[in-house]
Here is the input.
Amino acid sequence: FPEARYMHASFAGLLGRDAIATASLEAALADDPRYYPRCQNDACFDSVRGPIGRALEGLGQHQKELATQSLDYLQNIIDTARQYKIGSPLVDDAKLEHESLARLFTQGAYVEHTIALHRSSELAKAVVEAGQEVLDDRIQQLRGEIEQREATLRKEIQFREFRLRSPRTEQAGI
Here is the structure.
């Protein structure tokens, strides 16, 4: 109920209750970042503009830091996927979307930082899951190859043991 939280913050602002207005506004913004630009010019917050402004500045800085970390993490995930030659269309799409999110991030403020944070987190999770699937498939393939090689080696060992025990090799002095 972000609208209800925003309205609560608005009424608290009108009454000059800066702590309540700030807390309710932060709760509204956590659910819907689109209230960020709206509250900057809302006359309901004029009497508590100082505390609200400081809270918004802190929230904006925090959101920017989180988005930066998330975008960096996504870039590292993409680089790691490419390093391990995980070449799925998802990785290529994530790379393109990362570039788009990075542009949005540099041009934007709180709302754009929030979008970049959430979307880059979703993409990182998807790339990790895709990479895990590729690696699991490769592990299964390698296990199959190892089992096949072990079976071949067992047959070779059995054949050599058989040749060593056979009467012809004993008579020939081999």
Notes: The helical segments are 2-14, 18-31, 35-41, 49-83, 89-107, 110-165, 167-171. The chain is about 85% helix and 0% strand. The chain has a mean pLDDT of 89. The longest helix spans residues 110-165.
